[in-house]
Specification:
Alpha-Beta Plaits; five-stranded antiparallel beta sheet; four-stranded antiparallel beta sheet
């Protein structure tokens, strides 16, 4: 396996910008040119901003830099890219603790359908609140998130306030927000954020179980895990049944403990989760 750091040659940045703007898959197609002999995708990649990743003396500004894990060695004399590559054979031992970064497309399956984890967590919370407050007759499975929020905020202010306060206290994650004045809308938003954080933690724990690692905990028995950068990426094409095509991504960072060397090595080489052709799934690790 090979690990590469790839940058667009400065004279080519403007030339490829149009292609990249047209499609989220355009970048994957460009990087594939580094592996022209390969008939199938056998690489993972992650996009970052050069200035944030490279030494200031390198002259990097806001242009992108790409990290790639591949089964085959990339072409290092490509006309579009500067390529720095090295062999990639991580040495792992059971019990090793590693810092990790992962940009993933977190989804769960329910009744044969795939659901975006953050959006699903919010919708499930809102449905639950509506049910507890006796509003079932006014909602349906197709009710949109914003419609559910409006229904709750417009019809159940006092009872909803008590419920949201209790949820913030019991969750503990954002309980300190209660020390300052909060509107009902603010409380609902913080409770929804807590639900998303919890759902993403569960998703990441399940990925560890499948891929040979455990998430480490701190001295307060909290997972050493942070999530950020949630975003929705629309894809070109016609919407199906009114639903636009696309995928979400979330950045995870934290600390893990190696439990199964073969499973974790497979994850490092093959990625975690879905949407790998769009820059998701690449697990980056270093010694903690």
């Amino acid at each position: 396996m090979y690990f590469s750091r790839i940058r667009l040659r400065s004279e080519n940045i403007s030339n490829v910008a149009e292609k990249l703007a047209k499609s989220s898959y355009g970048l994957h197609q460009l990087l594939w040119e580094l592996f022209a002999e390969d008939g199938t995708r056998n690489f993972l990649f992650r996009e970052e901003i050069a200035r944030e990743q490279l030494d200031v003396r390198s002259g990097a500004r806001g242009e992108p830099v790409y990290y790639v894990v591949s089964a085959n060695r990339p072409h290092i004399d490509h006309s579009l890219f500067h390529v720095d590559e090295k062999t990639y054979q991580p040495q792992l031992q059971v019990g090793d603790r590693l810092h990790f970064d992962l940009r993933a497309n977190p989804v769960i399956s329910r009744n044969g359908k795939k659901h975006d984890v953050p959006m699903d967590a919010q919708r499930q919370l809102l449905y639950s609140l509506c049910a507890e407050l006796g509003l079932q007759s006014k909602i349906s499975e197709s009710s949109k998130k914003q419609a559910l929020k409006r229904l709750l905020l417009n019809q159940s202010s006092e009872r909803l306030d008590e419920k949201l306060t209790a949820l913030l206290k019991s969750n503990g994650r954002y309980a300190d927000r209660l020390e300052q004045p909060l509107s009902l809308t603010d409380k609902l938003d913080w409770v929804m954020k807590g639900a998303v954080d919890t759902a993403l933690e569960k998703w990441m724990v399940s990925q560890g179980e499948r891929n040979g690692f455990l998430l480490c905990k701190d001295r307060f028995d909290q997972l050493k895990l942070q999530t950020s950068g949630y975003g929705w990426h629309a894809l070109a094409g016609k919407a199906k049944r009114g639903i636009k095509s696309g995928f979400s991504s979330v950045d995870f960072t934290g600390e893990l403990e190696v439990r199964d060397i073969d499973l974790l090595r497979h994850a490092l080489f093959s990625g975690i989760g879905r949407s790998k052709a769009f820059g998701c799934g690449m697990l980056l690790v270093r010694r903690a």
